[in-house]
Write a structure and sequence with these properties.
- This protein is of the alpha/beta class and 558 residues long.
- It folds into three domains: 3-139, Rossmann fold; 149-291, Reverse transcriptase/Diguanylate cyclase domain (Alpha-Beta Plaits), CATH 3.30.70; 301-556, TIM Barrel (Alpha-Beta Barrel).
- The protein has 21 helices and 20 strands.
- The protein has an eight-stranded mixed barrel, surrounded by four helices. Strands 2-1-3-4-5 form a five-stranded parallel β-sheet, sandwiched between helices. A five-stranded mixed β-sheet has the order 7-8-6-9-10, with helices on both faces.
- Helix 7 packs across helix 8.
- The longest helix is centred in the N-terminal third of the chain and has 25 residues, at 115-139.
Length: 558
């Protein structure tokens, strides 16, 4: 459908001959709103009034008062008005080159004896100008004026196409804790800082070959001719910005993939630079990280795990281990439950620790697939122990941050327990504290729904973040589980010990059991016992073990 069907564009016809204006107006009037000017001076006044609402100017060259050449010159000097396309009306071939040099885009020869061609040229010129304006609006970031990510990669690949042998660096630049700058100083200050960083990046690059973009938020990408001294480059930027922006504690970090491998895809080069940048996140002692062989090996390992993940699920390479939970409130510790923990028995790499694959699967939004596999296996195991040993032992299932925002979570869990003919009460859902930092009202509603169905819910990693106390007043819980780092630090760190005591008091006030994980020795056990901690799991009692070993433990009744 013709765009003119939606709204009529406005065309300004500038010609000192009334008959010419009337002829063009008659040819185009059915499709466009027509404005007329009899000379260049009148045209400039109308252009000033109508501005960018004009879709096209049809401009005669030979006119009194101000001719068409002077109009073209004035338009070319205005950054906004020069975007209005101009078709020159002329019978002189010699005028075409000069007009093109001043910004004209096409010509309509006099006399106007071919209306169809005139209408076609006008329509095509307006369409091309609007398409170019749309592309231009998408090409540059509104805030900083740098390229957007999409166009950045287009231009970087163009450099690669025409000069593939040049020694180039892929660089990612990021402001540490940028969200705090917005929170403490306001979004206007944050925006001004982003503009300042963009300007300083371009200043430091100078005439060096390369392109830059704001990829998103406070992430900037640079693809530039190789730099010898990254630290000096970055320090110069930070020093100027601290002085001009007045924020003394400004910290900017840079990840560099130097002298890129030209056989690697452009996007992958910046994945590597971003990995280097992320490697020093939160480390204020370092400002620059260079992608190296160790990072490359880790990336290759991670890539292989991602490639193998689906097959690993289908082939049962993920093994569920169970770590016992003991109630220590009485004189003799009593086995009261277990936590289901996943391990990956990889055919090439052997047994892989969760810390090597769980964060990776979270990053690539695959963790929910693994979680559902683990839940189903653990729930089936609960039913097996119930049938073979007559023991209904509650098993804790980990619920990730992604899972808790899944509207189908309750239905998924209910379908599993019904399929295996166990009660929801046989499952304990461990929801990490960091998950509560999202939509609080939604999470409270989800937890309430789960508990109404009979599931028990524990807050895992309590004390690891800032949302713990905020959520306790509204969130329905069945237990609090201490963050493992507090357990590791409490013997040698008075503050950690005081936090543990404080949490013990909170749990008691709310009549919630307190669980400690990662308890490895008798000294930790004795201290937690003296603090009236209710339940303990950790190597002090038992490591996580396969289901058959745990079955032996249950059979013995320990």
């Amino acid at each position: 459908m013709d765009d003119n069907a939606f709204f009529r564009r406005t065309v300004l016809i500038v010609d000192d001959e009334p008959i010419n204006r009337e002829m063009l107006g008659a040819i185009l009037g059915g499709d466009y709103e027509i404005l007329h000017a009899g000379d260049g001076a009148e045209a400039m006044r109308m252009i000033g009034d109508y501005g960018m609402t004009l879709s096209l100017i049809l401009l005669d060259l030979l006119m009194p008062i101000m001719d068409g050449y002077e109009v073209l010159q004035k338009l070319s000097e205005d950054e906004t008005l020069k975007r209005i396309p101009v078709i020159v009306l002329t019978s002189e071939k010699s005028a075409e080159v000069k007009s093109l040099g001043l910004g004209a885009v096409d010509f309509i020869p006099k006399p106007y004896d071919m209306p169809e061609i005139i209408r076609a040229r006008v329509q095509r010129t307006i369409q091309l100008a609007e398409d170019a304006a749309l592309i231009k609006s998408m090409e540059n970031d509104d805030l900083t004026g740098l390229y957007t990510g999409r166009f950045f990669f287009e231009y970087a690949n163009r450099i690669e196409q025409y000069d593939s042998g040049r020694d180039m660096d892929a660089i990612v630049v990021n402001i540490n804790n940028f969200h705090l700058i917005n929170d403490l100083h306001g979004r206007d200050t944050g925006d001004e800082m982003l503009r300042s960083l963009a300007d300083n990046l371009m200043t430091e690059l100078g005439s060096r070959m390369g392109v830059a973009c704001r990829e998103n938020s406070d992430n900037f990408y640079l693809y530039v001719q190789h730099l010898d001294d990254y630290a000096t480059f970055l320090e110069s930027i930070v020093t100027r910005m601290r002085r001009t922006e007045g924020i003394k504690n400004l910290h900017i970090r840079m990840g560099v993939y130097p002298s890129v491998d030209h056989n690697v895809a452009m996007e992958t080069r910046f994945v590597r630079a971003r990995h280097a940048c992320n490697a020093i996140r939160g480390d204020l002692s370092q400002s620059v990280a260079v992608y190296n062989e160790d990072m490359h090996r880790r990336d290759a390992f991670s890539h292989q795990l991602l490639e193998d993940f689906e097959d690993a699920l289908a082939q049962g390479q993920f093994l569920i281990h169970y770590q016992p939970k003991y109630d220590i409130s009485g004189e003799i510790p009593t086995l009261v439950g277990a936590e289901a923990l996943v391990r990956w028995q990889h055919p090439e790499f052997g047994m892989i620790s969760p810390k090597d694959f769980v964060p990776l699967l979270e990053t690539y939004c695959l963790i929910s697939k693994l979680d559902r596999y683990v839940w189903n296996e653990a729930i089936a195991q609960i039913q097996s122990w119930k049938a073979s040993l007559g023991v209904a032992l509650p098993v804790s299932l980990n619920i990730s941050r992604i899972d808790i925002h899944d509207y189908a979570l309750k239905d998924t869990l209910l379908a599993m327990v019904r399929e295996h003919n166990i009660a929801p009460q046989d499952c304990v859902l461990e929801i990490t504290e960091s998950a509560y930092a999202g939509d609080a009202a939604r999470i409270v509603e989800t937890v309430a729904d789960l508990r109404n169905e009979g599931f028990r819910v524990e807050m895992d990693d309590f004390g690891s973040g800032s949302s713990s106390l905020n959520m306790l007043a509204d969130l329905p819980l069945d237990a609090i589980k201490l963050d493992i780092h507090l357990i590791n630090d409490m013997l040698g760190n008075c503050r950690s010990l005081q936090v543990v005591k404080l949490i013990r008091g909170i749990a008691k006030l709310l009549s919630l059991p307190l669980i400690a994980e990662g308890v490895e020795d008798k000294e930790q056990y004795d201290l937690l016992k003296s603090l009236n901690c209710d339940i303990i799991q950790g190597y002090y009692f038992a490591r996580p073990m396969p289901a058959d070993e745990f079955s032996t433990l249950l059979h013995k009744g320990d």
